Amino acid sequence: MSARTSASSFASSSAGETPRAASTALVINAQSGTSSIAQPHAASPLKPGRRDTLEVQQSKALSYILRHGASKEQLKLRPDGFIKVDDLLRRPKLKGLTVEGLHGIVANDAKRRYTLASEVDQLTGGPCEWIRANQGHSLPVDFLELIPIATAEELPVAVHGTYLPLWEVIRVQGLKTMSRTHIHLARGPPGSPDVTSGIRPNCNVYIYVDAKAAMADGIEFFSSANDVILTRGQNGVLSPRYFQKVSKPDGTLLA
Question: Where do the record's region annotations for Disordered lie (predicted)?
C-alpha cells in the first residue's frame, strides 16, 4: 500500500539537547558520528521536564515512537514508515492525545518533522489516516520519499553539526550512521535562509562536506521531505577526506 499525501504535509530533523551526563553523551555520539563509546540503543523518550507543555511532552513521545519505538509499542510500521493514526493514539505513551491534537502538533512543528497521509481503508471503505516521521529513524524504513541529489551543483553547501568533545574522534574516524540509517547534513548552519532542519541549534562545531568530491567517488546524497540532507557515505562512513572545512559558529577554523 502506498501513501497518498494529503493536502497538508509536514516534517522534521533530529533536534536534541546539550550534552549533560554520560547517557546523554552516548545519544549525541550516536547522532554525531563518533564510535569511541559503545554503540547505544535507540533513544527512549525523554521524561518531560517541568517546563514542558503538554504539547511538547506529546511531541517528544510521538517522535520517539515514529522513529525508534514502533516495535516496542507493538505498532505496525509500513515499509514507507507510516503508522495508522488510530492505532498510534491507543498507545499509553500518547494517552489523552486526540486526532485534533495530533494535527496541531504536526501543523505547529517548525521543523516539519512529520507527514500525514489520508487513504481509503481497504477493509471498511472509509477514510484512514496515517503518519510518519520524515527522517531520523533507527528502525529499518525502506521507502521514505527521499529525493536523490543528482549533481554537486544542487548541493553547494552541506554541513553537519556536532560538539567539540566529539570532534577529535570524528576528525580521525569520520562521520558514521551509527544507530541511524543515514548521516544527517543541512544546507547551511542554523540561521541560514531557508534552512529549517538538519542541525541542532546548540551544536558548536560545523563540519562542511565537499559534496562534489564525495559524489565523484560514488557517494549518494538525498533530500528528505523536510529538506534534511541524508547520506550513508561508504559502508556507513563519510571519511574525513571529504571534510571541506570545520569551524565553530563564530567562524574560527578547526580544520
Answer: 1-21, 34-53
- The residues that bridge with 229 in the sheet, in sequence order, are 185, 223
Residue 17 lies in a domain: no
Please check whether residue 106 is in contact with residue 117, taking contact to mean a CB–CB distance below 8 angstroms.
no
Residue 41 maps to a domain: no
What are the residue ranges of helices labelled H in the chain? 22-32, 54-64, 85-88, 99-108, 164-173, 211-216
Question: What is the structure's pLDDT at 251?
Answer: 93
Q: Is residue 94 part of a domain?
A: yes
Domains in the chain: how many in total? 2
φ, ψ dihedrals at 244, nearest 5°: -75, -45
Cell of 198: 538538519
- DSSP 3-state assignment of 161? strand
- Measured from the Cβ of residue 90, the count of other Cβ atoms closer than 10 Å reads 12
Q: How far apart are CA 54 and CA 214, in angstroms?
A: 43
Tens of pLDDT along 183-210?
989 999 988 877 776 788 889 999 999 9
Confirm if 168 and 210 have CB atoms less than 8 A apart: no
Reported as a single tens digit per residue, the pLDDT across 136-159 is 666 555 555 678 899 999 999 999
Indicate which CATH number applies to the domain containing 114.
1.10.10.970
Do residue 153 and residue 204 come from a single domain? yes
pTM of the model: 0.53
Examine the fold and report which residue of 109, 133, 157 is the final residue of a domain before the chain moves on. Answer: 133
Domain assignment of residue 103, given as a range: 54-133
